[in-house]
Amino acid sequence: MSGLFPLIAKDAVVRRRGKVLVGPVDLTLQAEGVTAVIGPNGAGKTTLLRMLHGIARLSAGSVRWNCPPDAAQQRQAFVFQTPVMMRRSVRDNIAYPLQLIGIPKKQARARAEEWAERVGLQYAMARSALMLSGGERQKLALARALIRAPEVLFLDEPCAALDGRATREIEEILLGAAAAGTRLIMSTHNMGQARRLASEVAFVLNGRIHEFSAAGDFFDGPRRPQADAFLRGDIVE
Ligand SMILES: Nc1ncnc2c1ncn2[C@@H]1O[C@H](COP(=O)(O)OP(=O)(O)OP(=O)(O)O)[C@@H](O)[C@H]1O
Q1: Confidence class of residue 237 from pLDDT cuts 50, 70 and 90?
Q2: Which family does it belong to (predicted)?
Q3: How many domains does the chain have?
């Protein structure tokens, strides 16, 4: 099986109702690292992630992985900002992606147990997923995404509205996934989180990638004035 990377976007544009939401974007992502997508509200971070993942229809340009699109899709997962829970147990929710690809229920449930333990949800396996707290829901969403060992995991604000402790726990899971070889591409409003996790930063403003740099360089001294203003907490439009 060939590598998924590089991911190459060329002049990629997502337009809806005559308005450009993202683009044109030229971006090459390599196999290594954790990419943080940052920028003000409404800048286009979510749309950019959806575009790269292949679930936002392109209006122009291209987004290509190093393998055919169907195969690439199978090798990725996406954790949405507000994950959808099935009205079933935590165990069934985590096991579901494996059942979808034909793994027998018993085996899928055994793997779900392993993942519940890794994300710290083993105590909640029999509970309805609808009863979980925000932090628990995110852990479930991560276990459900990681159970198929995706090569790439997109995350849209995985810690939005979580407190410090839940954020730390989620970050530990993410670092574990990255160490195990999953490529992370995530949006975040939390600059502390971007500093802790990211090896590279894409700064998005008005649907364009204004700056794409190694995280250390970006946080030490962004090249673009808008990025600098954003990091200082100014309102950037
Ligand atoms: N399907 C759609 N049709 C029309 N406009 C949309 C659609 N989806 C998003 N938008 C608009 O596109 C812009 C970018 O939205 P997006 O959610 O990508 O930004 P964001 O940077 O993720 O924002 P936030 O930080 O607030 O989550 C916003 O102005 C939003 O209202």
Answers
A1: confident
A2: Belongs to the ABC transporter superfamily.
A3: 1
pTM: 0.95
State the helix-helix crossing angle for 164-179 and 134-146, rounded to 10 degrees: 10
Nearest to 158, CA basis, from 144, 147, 174, 146: 174
Whether ligand 1 lies within 6 angstroms of the CB of 38 is answered as no
Ligand 1 centroid from CA 191, angstroms: 20
Ligand 1 test: best mutation among 37, 41, 47, most atoms within 8 Å of CB?
47
* Domain-located, residue 111: no
CATH number (domain holding residue 146): 3.40.50.300
Task: Convert the pLDDT of each residue in 52-85 to its tens digit.
Answer: 999 999 999 999 999 988 889 989 999 999 888 9
Residue 15 placed within a domain: yes
Query: Do 174 and 197 contact (CB within 8 A), yes or no?
Result: yes
Smallest CA separation from ligand 1 atom 28, residue: 42
Q: Does residue 116 lie within any of the structural domains?
A: no
Q: Is the Cβ atom of 237 under 6 angstroms away from ligand 1?
A: no
